[in-house]
Amino acid sequence: MRFSSLAVIAAVTLSIAGCYSPGELIQMGPTYAAQTHKSPKQYALCVFPQWQESRPDATLSETENGYRLLSGNDMNTNEILQVSKTADGSDVKFYQRSYLDFGAGKATALESTKNCL
Asked: Does residue 9 sit within a domain?
């Protein structure tokens, strides 16, 4: 009985530990940052289709000064890509939560972020 209680507590703790809202993920700081000479729209339209292939829940939205790609949802965000307009092109900030992912989605999100620069 005692063992099963500990197992349930451990499972709940592990399942909650990896959940982040978009704001919480951004507060942790970017996993990867870069600049590109592409406009925010050009860059976002290069990355977004690649994210959609491995992350069907990926969304693209326009912001005041660029674009934002997000995979996941408001309570469990996997990746965020913020693309902001600069004088020479775009500033790129990629945020990714630490979690167990046995599929290709996690690696593909970062690879496409770098490949489209």
From this structure: no
Q: Which amino acid, 27? A: Q
Which positions ≥6 away from 70 have C-beta within 8 Å?
Answer: 22, 58, 59, 61, 77, 79, 80, 81
Q: Express each pLDDT in 71-83 by its tens digit.
A: 986 678 889 999 9
| 3: in domain | no
**CA 48/CA 24 separation, integer angstroms:** 22
- pTM confidence score: 0.78
Considering the domain boundaries, does residue 81 fall inside one?
yes
- Domain limits for position 90: 20-115
User: What Cα–Cα distance (Å) separates residue 40 from each residue in 59, 68, 85, 86?
Assistant: 15, 9, 6, 9
Residue of 50, 51, 85, 79 lying closest to 67 (CA atoms): 85
